[in-house]
Amino acid sequence: MKTMNNTIHIVVELVAQEGKFDEMKDIFSELASATREEKGVISYSFIEDENRKNTLLSVEEWQDEESEKKHWDTPHLKSALKKANEVFASEPIVHKGKKII
């Protein structure tokens, strides 16, 4: 059984401008499809926050730090972030860590 000690967990809060949520959702839907094909990704999902309007939560698990770092250099992430910057209401908030319990 594979140990989970080195896996990287990330949750990112993404908030769209008023009226731009569907556009943001489409951008990240495309990104998710491409990212799920990357080596080292364990899971990569987006959840609509039921308590905060216009908010998506990116929930990610990566095999290791190296895999997550390589993700930042992919053309699909760079393209998605360029598009998303036009619809973000605020800077994304990133929570990153390793599973301890």
TrEMBL record:
PROSITE patterns: ABM (PS51725). SUPFAM superfamilies: Dimeric alpha+beta barrel. Keywords: Monooxygenase, Oxidoreductase. Residues 8-96 form the ABM domain. GO terms for molecular function: monooxygenase activity. InterPro entries: ABM_dom (IPR007138), AI-2_Isomerase_LsrG (IPR050744), Dimeric_a/b-barrel (IPR011008). This is Quinol monooxygenase YgiN. It comes from Sediminitomix flava.
